[in-house]
Each structure stands twice: as structure tokens, then as C-alpha cells.
Amino acid sequence: TEVTWKSGSSRRDLSFSRRFVGSFIHVHYKLADGFPSGRNDFAEDAFQLAEKYRDFRSLAALCHRDAVYPPEENPHAARIQAYVDKFKEDFTTELFQWYIEHGELRTMFAQEQNVDYLDRFFAESHYPYVSWLHDLGRGRYGMAAQTLLEEADEAPELSSKHVSCFVLPKR
Questions:
Q1: Dihedrals φ, ψ of 111, to 5°?
Q2: Which tens digits make up the pLDDT trace of 146-156?
Q3: Distance between CA 67 and CA 170 in Å, rounded?
Q4: HSE-up of 142 (CA within 13 Å, CB side)?
Q5: What separation, in Å, do the N-terminal and C-terminal C-alpha atoms of the chain show?
Q6: How far apart are CA 25 and CA 50, in angstroms?
Q7: Contacts of 111 (CB under 8 A, 6+ apart)
Q8: Among candidates 111, 64, 65, 118, which has minimal Cα distance to 88?
Q9: What are the tens digits of pLDDT across the range 35-78?
């Protein structure tokens, strides 16, 4: 069965629409960088489009155009929390994926107010090479150890491209 979206549009049309909006937001993002005097106007348009079409990946990216760490210095910190409160897991899933993909684990782990969403994210997503850090921070040492053992069993050779260095925030 095909899912209809708007007046007979198919799932394929919805996918195209989302890609189009994502491209449009990307263009707005680039334009905003090129024209400092109009930067906020374009950025607000991009935020509004991403909100309207529930493009949470673009919202996460837009919210992190400036300062990323520490989170409280991000000029969009209040907006990020408002999106978390409004869109819940729909937004946090994309937000946490953005953090992982951009190597911003310290920012992700520093947001203690969203720890329950982070628990759900790691329960539903497959990021064992990161989830063990979360388990350590939550005092779940057995789970962290088990995850590390499983990861070690699946990685027969340790090469320099697989070694990562993590900086954990102090609590």
C-alpha cells in the first residue's frame, strides 16, 4: 500500500519533496553565509521551511552553524531545547545522529537535560562504538563492558583508522 501525503501524492513524491526542501535549505544556508547583512533573514527562512516540512536533519544542522561546544554557548541552545520539547524523538534522533556524524560527542553527552532521549536513542539505534560511553556515564558499567567485548570480538584487527580518541566532559 502506498501512503498518500497531500492530495494523492505518493511516498515517492513525499521523498522527492523532502529532498527538494533539504536542497532549498542548503541553498539558503549558503546564501546566508555569503551575505552577512541578510544572514539572519535567510537563516530564519531556512528554520521556518525545515520546521514546516519537519526536516529534522536540516534543523539539527542549522542549529549548529555557529558555536557547538559548550552547548550553552550555542546561540541556538534555547531553540534546540524547544525542538526537543516540541518534536521529541523525531528531532532528537536526527540531532544525536548529527552529533555522531560530526564528531560532536562531547556536545551530545553534555546535554544532561536530554539524557532520557539519549537512552532511547541508543536503545533503538546501532552505535555501540558510542553507546558504551553513554553507559559509563550512566553508571551501567556491565553494559559498557559487554558492548566493548562484543565490539572487540567483531574487530579482528585494530588499525589506526579504527582508533578514536574521546574527550568526556567532567561532571
A1: -90, 75
A2: 999 998 888 76
A3: 19
A4: 0
A5: 50
A6: 7
A7: 71, 118
A8: 118
A9: 444 455 688 889 999 999 999 999 999 999 887 888 888 999 99
